[in-house]
Amino acid sequence: MRDPSLVHQPLGVEPPKGRLLPRNTVVPSCGKRLRAALLLGIGGWRLLEALGVQPEVCHLNEGHAAFAVLERARGFMQETGQPFEVALAVTRAGNLFTTHTAVAAGFDRFSPALIEHYLGGYAEQKLGISLRDLLALGRLDPNDPSESFNMAYLAIRGSGAVNGVSRLHGKVSRQLFEPMFARWPQDEIPVGHVTNGVHVPTWDSAPADDLWTDACGKDRWMGTTNTLERNIRSVSDAELWHFRTAASKALVEYTRERLSRQLTASGASPAVIDKANHLFDPNALTLGFARRFATYKRPNLLLHDPDRLLRLLTNPQRPVQLILAGKAHPADQAGQNLIREWTRFIGQPEARPHVVFLSDYDMLLTEHLVQGVDVWINTPRRPWEASGTSGMKVLVNGGINLSELDGWWAEAYTPEVGWALGDGREHGDDPAWDAAEADALYGLLEREVIPEFFKRDKSGIPSAWIRRMRESMARLTPLFSANRTVREYTEQHYLPAAAAYRERAANKGAIGQRIVNWRNTLEQKWAGLRFGEVRVDTRGEQRVFEVQVHLADLDPNAVRVELYANGVMGGVPLRQELTRVRQLASAPGVYVFTASVSAARPAADYTARVIPNRDGVAVPLEAAHILWQR
Ligand SMILES: *Cc1c(COP(=O)(O)O)cnc(C)c1O
Selecting from 3.10.180.10, 3.40.50.2300, 3.40.50.2000, 3.50.50.60, what CATH number does the domain 4-196+490-509 have? Predict the structure, then answer.
């Protein structure tokens, strides 16, 4: 097949007059994905420029847009005449990179040949750097010519801060990016987290909007959300239950309608369509499970023991119904097979009244599901669900989550607000663990979820259920709303990033220039740094450390010397800065640093280290040198 990318010109190279590329040019595959990334990152930034928009902060969501950091730097070069290195040091302060995947395979990578084809000219003519230097921005080892170009690495090297999308995902990302920060302890890998949240007004039903308006006011999502938890708690059991029964009824009606449309479209007989119009029971417990059918989401965990699932659904005293929806990627054979497994299960006459699979999973379908289900089930393999957001969409509507302790649920779950699956550890794709979790999932449904829903007081209200639902609504809805997320991004990232960018950009990037000089000096002199004598004196409750460091002719203010001790029993590590007290008269370039720490821990627990130091510069993100005493 002819590669259509043959007709595309590399960036930064004027099209040759009269014809396209030389006939024998070989363009490697994956060109389309790279071209999309160029359009998004470089084209996106140019579009903003053309519109006269001059952002101080650029938030890169996922590595796809990472080329924007190059084009932003290029714009600064043009404006100020600074070289690329300085322009990047200035502009990166205004870039934030949010990573969204929990597996290394999720990062976009391109072959060096492809980067050369599309960006070789751009690097040399527009950025004034060699192809090798450009490739180094996307590599772990700049000296390995076979290493591919990783967009996440480019994004990290072009940003002033990096974050994951849940607390657990922050931790997983620190593991994934550890190789970029050799010899740094894992908890100091510079990736934080801002947990995702959902835009609540998009996902609440009209009756939920009314309920929340009565309790919390019409403007409840406009300002701080501090009073919502208290105010929504004041809604009575009876009101909440009435609200839920109406929601169940609406969802059953929607499901019937949608299913009969689905069946009509597929040419089903009138008898079958008529059955669909009477499917389900508004008084049954409704479980929802909708997501992309990717294997890590384990959409067939509920099917692990089909007979047990069938028994659980068909108990006449406690009827349960299950709505499934989802899509698999057309090329994902495993995902397609998971959908077929469900179709076979639903094909059984006993199962049919209790389970439906709705096709064309999209936001409209999600909206109806999250507004009507009683329980939202999510069964990913920890830690592969970076955040997950669908479970957040049920909160405002009074749905309750039953989910693996992964992504957002790992930090949201307490026993008062829902149900949890898993032991909070990682087990990979071990089939024995999948079986154990399937068993736990059935057990939870049989022993807790279903009985709690059907245990009614004398007014017919399931009071324990309502209590759990109220806690989930009150505690979690504000916490996992976009209000909280956007506020965190603004306070922790956007405002400081804008200020840092302005500071570095002032006077044509003067501070950026100094940062580059500082970093180049460190680079040249680091190999010459050494520890000298280390003395420890115990004085009463204190241990006094005196540490000699050979800095040669490096400015001692360019580094920071610290004592480091591992955390005790999983606690946070101790980091204590040492003060520079004098230079050895007998040995020029050797400085003495001292600090005292509590004598509670043995002296051998502590080790000294030297790290880069400069006000306003993120270490190790922008300078990853580290020298350990031992
Ligand atoms: C919310 C939503 C998702 C994301 O759900 P996850 O739980 O994060 O997988 C996917 N598709 C649609 C249509 C959605 O509405």
Answer: 3.40.50.2000
pLDDT of residue 11: 61
pLDDT for the residue 237:
98
Q: Is 437 exposed, middle or buried (0-12, 13-18, 19+ CB in 10 A)?
A: buried
Q: Which residue's C-alpha comes closest to atom 2 of ligand 1?
A: 390
DSSP 187-252: GGSS-EE----B-HHHH--HHHHHHHHHHH-TTTTTS--TTHHHHHHTS-HHHHHHHHHHHHHHHH
Ligand 1 contacts (CB < 6 A) are: 291, 361-363, 366, 388-390
Q: What is the pLDDT of residues 262-313, one digit of tens each?
A: 999 999 999 999 999 999 999 999 999 998 898 999 999 999 999 999 999 9
CATH number for the domain whose boundaries are 529-628: 2.60.40
List the 192-193 sheet strands across, edge first. 58-61, 95-98, 161-164, 192-193
* pLDDT band of 22, cuts 50, 70, 90: very low
Is 3.40.1000.10 the CATH classification of the domain at 200-480?
Answer: no
**What pLDDT score does 570 carry?**
84
Q: Which atom of ligand 1 is nearest to the CA of 367?
A: 15
Rounded distance from Cα 286 to ligand 1 centre (Å):
19
618 pLDDT exceeds 70? yes
Residue nearest to atom 10 of ligand 1 (CA): 291
* Residue 13: predicted pLDDT: 47
Two domains, one topology: 4-196+490-509 and 529-628: no
Q: In this predicted model, what pLDDT tens digit does every residue of 577-588 receive, in sequence order? A: 999 999 999 999
CA 364 to ligand 1 centroid distance, Å: 11
- Which of 195, 366, 373, 377 has most ligand 1 atoms within 8 Å of CB, for mutation? 366
Q: Quick one: which of 285, 270, 284, 276 has its CA closest to 255?
A: 276
CA–centroid distance, 182 to ligand 1, in Å, is 36
Task: Return the amino acid letter for 536.
Answer: V
Reading the block at residue 359, the tokens are 């096709």
Is pLDDT of 17 > 90? no
Ligand 1 atom 6: residue of nearest CA? 388
Residue written as tokens 């965990």? 301
> Which H helix or E strand runs over 321?
strand 320-325
Residue-range domain boundaries for the chain: 4-196+490-509, 200-480, 529-628
Indicate which residue's Cα is closest to atom 8 of ligand 1: 388
Ligand 1 mutation target, pool 291, 295, 367, most atoms within 8 A of CB:
291
User: Ligand 1 centre from 627 Cα, in Å?
Assistant: 45
141-196 confidence digits (pLDDT tens): 999 999 999 999 999 999 999 999 999 999 999 999 999 999 999 999 999 999 99
Which atom of ligand 1 is least distant from the CA of 393?
Answer: 1
What order of strands is seen across the sheet that includes strand 627-628? Answer: 574-577, 559-565, 607-612, 627-628
pLDDT, one tens digit per residue, over 520-547 is 999 999 999 999 999 999 999 999 999 9
Ligand 1 centroid vs 265 CA: distance in angstroms?
25
